[in-house]
Amino acid sequence: MYTLGLNAAFHDSSAAILKDGVPIAAAEEERFTRIKHGKRPVPFLSYQLPFHAIDYCLREAGIGLREVDRIAYSFDPSLCLEGADVSSMTLPLEPSAQPREDGRHPWEPLFLAGIVNAPRFLVGDWPHHLSQVRDGIESAAELPPFEFVEHHLSHAASTYYVSGFRDAAVLTMDGRGERDSTLFAVGHGASLAKVREVMLPNSLGVLYERVTEHLGFLHSSDEYKVMALASYGSHALLPRFRSLVNLTAEGGYETAMSDLAAEFGPVRRRGEPLEGRHFDLAAALQTTLEETVMDLAFRFQRETGLDDLCLAGGVALNCVMNGRLRDQGPFRRIFIQPAAGDAGTALGAAFVVDARERGLASEYTMEDAYLGPAFDAAEIRRVLDGAHLAYEEPPDIAEATAALLAEDKIAGWFQGRMEFGPRALGARSIVASPADPDMKTRLNAIKQREEFRPVAPAVVEERADEFFAPAAPDPFMIFIRDVRPEKADAIPSARHIDGTARVQTVSRHTAPLFHALIEAVGQRTGVPVIVNTSFNTRGEPIVCTPEDALACYFTTSLDALAIGPYLLRKR
Ligand SMILES: [Fe+2]
């Protein structure tokens, strides 16, 4: 049974396809269209579907649209309509001209119209160059059965069904779903049951987004920058910030919609210098988030008695919070899949439908994120030759690249299937040695990133414990851990100011070539650790195709490009 999952309501539009509970392919639309996040997170763009990602998923599965058994969309508009008679609803011509008396978003009718009509757009809105993917389907009635799946249930399914756990507590937190921002659920075998929700406007995700915007960054995108800023701040603003979030007797929380400028000083305009109060506000936000989530987790664990936790939703991309939950929280094991944000809901919506239809939990456990397109050597060679480029084909691309990294060169690393989710994990990465103390600055310069941003290390799984604590595999780079103090000097560029690092542990089994690269670097330098940042420049999505990789390579100061078996070098 093929189930196609779609995410398109907010942003990070994506598609995923399952065959009998096993993901065949999943990818974000941004990688194909080269528009970061697929589209802007504004309510009037809800009609835009991830056509390129759908096309990719169907090609990877080797089927046409007619052969899909079910289509699952990760947002259920009926939950927002509350029994309204949709046949007689009218859309305002200028929605934001007048605020709505009920406090709801003025663009909500248009937002919902975009979603309600998704089946029609899936027939009628294909870009011309992909129109054959429609498979001759002429009307929404001819589509495979199309259903809307609750947003947070989709988040929950995206982590629970691929966790390998058979009994688990599930917690999802993001900015917003249909009417909720947080879901507590319990997974048992094929079933995934809701326990309780936190309803809007209360939302830890929205609070984080508001502070992100207040600090002059792009909300729903740059939250991880605020997380990085937090480690530079003091706790001066913590007592005041804490009062914005209150736990409820029911096991949820309330967030106050206070005026941040009145409480914490004026908004920082984009590009203005960062001052102490900005760092302090980020620190207060981050600590408040961590404390709140810890309290919620302890209560939920006591209630359920379960040992394992699955996390999802944009808030679950906060690897500092995740690290604290792992080290000080009540659960024995925590699973977070790499596309924890909205992109992952395409996978989750498909899993909800798949588990229900087949009555079975998936046998699949997600051990790697490589669900995107791959390009074989012949395809890559055609692109290189077509552009009249000089390249070598060394006997061992991992060895040849390692030799360059050992000389403190920086290389693009383009190998195998692209990652699903926002993190580069050794398929579309920029790689370098962390031994040079200036490497962080050099990498941030290539990527035109702010200097406070850390770069993350990747270490061979077998030797992670020598450099980092605690010892636990983390193939998705989604928890921070401490750099062992005695190793700090060996990897100065991989260590954040607070002594932590966002580490990827690399397995020989799931990422053999990336593992070989790091091991070869270790043989040369004695340190089997590299720094790994996503293969893109500022404002661009991660590269997808060989052409994207070449464009990035030739427009930055990258020293080399390892692309498939081929190596390109600059003078
Ligand atoms: Fe979400």
Molecular structure report:
This protein has 571 residues and is of the alpha/beta class. The protein folds into 3 domains: 2-152, Nucleotidyltransferase, domain 5, CATH 3.30.420.40; 163-336, 2-Layer Sandwich (Nucleotidyltransferase, domain 5), CATH 3.30.420.40; 377-569, Carbamoyltransferase, C-terminal domain (DHBP synthase), CATH 3.90.870. Helices cover 32% and strands 19% of the residues. The protein has 19 helices and 22 strands. It has a 7-stranded mixed β-sheet, sandwiched between helices. The chain has a 5-stranded mixed β-sheet with strand order 3-2-1-4-5. The radius of gyration is 23 Å and the shape is globular. The protein starts with a strand and ends with a strand. The mean pLDDT is 94. Bound molecules: fe (ii) ion.
